[in-house]
Amino acid sequence: MNNINILGIESSCDETAAAVIRNGREVLSNIISSQIAIHTEYGGVVPEIASRKHLEKIDDVVSLALKEADCTFDDIDAIAVTYGPGLVGALLVGVAEAKALSYALNKPLIGVHHIEGHISANYIENKDLEPPFACLIVSGGHTHLVMVEDYGKYEIVGRSRDDAAGEAFDKVARAVGLGYPGGPKVDNAARTGDPHAIEFPRGVVAGNPYDFSFSGIKSAVLNHINKAKMTGAEINIPDLCASFQEAVTDSLVSRAIGLCRERGIKKLAIAGGVASNSHIRSRLESECAENGIRFYRPSPVLCTDNAAMIGCAGYYEYLRGRRDGLELNACPNLKLGER
Length: 339
Ligand code: KG4
Ligand code: ZN
Known about the structure:
Elements: E1 5-10, E2 15-22, E3 26-34, H1 36-40, H2 47-68, E4 78-84, H3 88-105, E5 109-113, H4 114-125, E6 133-138, E7 143-150, E8 153-159, H5 165-175, H6 182-190, H7 215-231, H8 237-263, E9 267-271, H9 278-290, E10 294-296, H10 300-303, H11 308-319
Parallel strand pairs: 1-4, 4-5, 6-9, 9-10
Antiparallel strand pairs: 1-2, 2-3, 6-7, 7-8
Zinc ion (ZN) binds next to helix 4.
């Protein structure tokens, strides 16, 4: 079989990224230019700044991805790009770049769903992983529990009714003055804290037992902080972070393991930026082991936004015959499984 090289491009939020992926699972290069340092000044992502920075970086990031992969454009078989969901102005930069390359080089263009990219990150380091499997996607914008029935075929079993898990981490971090992005900072502060120091709710929702809710947990943390401020009580940041993280972890782990047990699923993967959380990873690891479930988790650099995952998802879309025309547009609210 001839090698198939996909150039992946990602610009949906605050990372400008390009990667070359061979035959779906081999990373020849994975270049990520992060804007975190810029947005930190504002305490969160500023969409206009994100778009402008993507525009400044995208050409260099693509060139670097080719150089590091020891490739030229001639070696590329197709260009895969995130076209949603995400910030519209940010997405447009990647989509325009991919369309221009596709037109100029006369190579196929493939639009990729950002969440499908996150899920596909699991294929890169686990050459034996094939659908079907369950996947818990926890990122800054999304919390989904899905059954990956086949490549590109998903059943959404549960989703967050309000905030995404990452959003809750970011808001709690901001409230205690840890800064942006909050996830890694809360993760770190929680290491020396007592996860049972403060009892926060577990986000139970009526109706679908697999749906999540994080706004109640977040509000309980904010109430705790406000109450402490009013009474002059000292806030123990490690204890607060560990207790908050424990509540989020319980909520995620109980549903993911519950789904596997209910349906007799023996493979569970996690994906998205929050999937790099050390506590969530270790709890899932031990509960999967107890329940005879094989646990898959991408390395942290493949959990947060990157283009290797887009190249990987793009490869399977390429095999399935997906080809987009130059009318491909950014879709900020694209649903998983939608085209
Ligand atoms: O997947 P991602 O890079 O971007 C989106 O598609 O949203 O996820 C970013 C989110 C942010 O909310 C960030 O705080 C969170 O992932 N995150 C973490 C950790 N590392 C990143 N949350 C908890 N623990 C971490 N170690
Ligand atoms: Zn993401």
